[in-house]
Structures are given as C-alpha cells and as structure tokens.
Amino acid sequence: MTATTTAARTGTRTDDVLTATGLVKKFGDRAVVDGVSLRVGTGEILGFLGPNGAGKSTTIAMLTGALKPDGGTIQVDGADFAAGPMRAKALIGVVPQEIALYPTLSARQNLTFFAGAYKLSRGERRERIDWALDVVGLADRAGDKVASYSGGMQRRVNIAAALLHMPRLLFLDEPTVGVDAQSRNQIFETVLRLRAEFGMSVVYTSHYMPEVEQLCDRIVIVDHGKVLAEGTQEELLRPLGEGLLEWAPTAEELGKLPGGMSWLEARFAGHGQISVAASGDGSSVLRIRVNDMPATLREVSEIAAGTGLGLGGIRLGRPDLESLFLDLTGRQIRDGA
Ligand SMILES: Nc1ncnc2c1ncn2[C@@H]1O[C@H](COP(=O)(O)OP(=O)(O)OP(=O)(O)O)[C@@H](O)[C@H]1O
User: Fold this and answer.
1) Model ipTM?
2) How far is the CA of 204 from the centre of ligand 1 (A)?
3) For the domain 241-317, what is the CATH superfamily, name and number?
4) Which InterPro entries match (predicted)?
C-alpha cells in the first residue's frame, strides 16, 4: 500500500477509495441509518458487520448509489458521489445477494450480456470475460449452462459480472450464504487475489465471524443504524483482555460456598471485568474478562482446593469477534440469520 497521510480531524486518508460521513436514511420517521461514517482504504478488505436489521444493506445501498441518503456525504476516490454519480459508479462493483443470471445461458453468455453495458471493444470484452472467469475459478466450466451450476458457482458468476469493468472497490453482500465449501474457498481466494494483484478494495458483509477474522483487515460493527466499533481485529479485541473464563458451578456446589455466587465473584475482584449471567438451565455463570490468565488460574485452583468445588463447570475462551459482538450488541451475530 502507498504511504498515507492521515487527516487527523476526519480520520480519512489520502488513499481512501471511499469515505462516508454522517450518513442518514429514514423510512418514515425512523432513521434506520443514523449517522454512519466509515472509510475504505486502497487495497483494504473491510468487514461490515451487524445483526439482522442493523442497517447494513441500507448503508450499502447508499454507498453504491442505489439509494439516496437523507443526510451525510459520500466520496469515491476523492470526489463527491452525488456530484458525479456516473464516475463514482464506474469505480464500484456490486455483488448482490440474489443471483441475477439467465439460467439457460452459459456463464460466458451471461457475462457477454453484462459486458454489453460497458463501452468495450469486442476484443477487450472477450479479454475481460476470460479474466473474470479465471479470477472466480470458472474458466473450465464457462461454456456450461448456468442452470447446471451449484448455488456457489452461480454466486461466482455473479461476482465475475461485477468485475467486468475492473472496479476499484467491490461490495460483496453475504457472498457465502448457502454456498458449498469449495465455492466458499474459491470466493476467499478471489477476494485475496483481487487485492493482491489489482490493489482492489473490498467491503465484505457476513454473518460468519471466522470468515471475517480470516479475510478482513479492518472491521466496522453497526447496530440500530449506528457504528458501534471500528478498527483492526487486534484493536477491537484488545479491550476484551487476555481471555474469557466462565465458571458455572452446579446448584449443589454453590450451596456449599459461604456466600454463594457473590462470594465467588468477590474472590476474583481485581482479576478483570466480572459479570454474572443466567445460563440456559436457570443456574448462574460467572464470566471474567481476564487480565492475567496465569494469576486467575492460580486463584481458581486455590478456590477449588479450599472449597472442594469441581472444575467441570469451567470454560476458557480466547477473545474473539463473536464475544465482542455479543458484548456490543447483546446479540449473537447469527441470531435469526
Ligand atoms: N424500504 C424500506 N422501508 C421501510 N423499512 C425498511 C426498508 N428497507 C429496510 N427497512 C428497515 O430498515 C432496517 C434496516 O434494514 P437493513 O436491510 O438495512 O438491515 P441489515 O443490517 O442489512 O439486515 P440483514 O442482515 O437482515 O440483511 C430494518 O428494520 C428494515 O426492516
């Protein structure tokens, strides 16, 4: 990536391919996007996450010119989107969730149809189609009817269609929902190759945290139309401490402690952020975002030795996006997905 100059006041950088500031979209009286600001750097893969109904699709519709914002500004490659929508759109590729292909035509015929929208010579068109088919790993099946493709392969043709004009920024909205493992891996490879070979930027929405952890350089988490957190994975996870320790003693075990759960909670005072939550079966779980795991484990073993409490109810976890998401939104990202 080229050197960047940070404009301290806005947080934007000179090589950002897209910046959005204070985006608002209202449906009736309700602001479903309520002041969203974000940036996408050149060659950056940005994860855009949020629970169902958070406002992701509405935000993306505005960023790609499909929906007019009620407030805020969008700049693509340094120029105002609203002032030059044709130029902005030429720099953007959008892969929608729905498959938008002609099933009775081959992948190549479908792409030839889409390429007709761009002012390309016959030779250029053919070159671009070959390239796009190669990038999505479908060159060897290009002549087969799309109807004979798996859902994942059809999704890959959709991606190829969005690449024909060589955009600088590609929006992929839940590209792996319902696709087979082979296509999923191929989609990953495609994204990484587009970045590595062409410096393309990608905005990637997904409900699958491991995908986001694996692919994305930076992540923006939204809910109720607002940005809740933004940063690299490391920046986002740092406040969560070294790890998570959960202790769910049985009711019988708790009964043996001098002051039940409050006693146990007090023993871990100073070990990190502590909370007590109800577990699924009605009992309680002590959760500690641990600052110093070895010290906390020593405390656990002292408590166990002193009280005879079993260690069966203990679970250790490293901080991950799933736990961050739960902390921020109070919901699992895949709730109702
Ligand atoms: N055209 C519309 N008219 C009224 N309300 C709408 C419209 N489009 C979206 N909404 C509402 O705006 C909110 C945000 O929707 P949006 O589709 O942007 O969320 P999302 O984060 O993309 O959710 P999902 O992950 O389920 O796709 C939802 O409550 C939705 O019902």
Assistant:
1) 0.96
2) 17
3) ACT domain (3.30.70.260)
4) AAA+_ATPase (IPR003593), ABC_transporter-like_ATP-bd (IPR003439), ABC_transporter-like_CS (IPR017871), P-loop_NTPase (IPR027417)
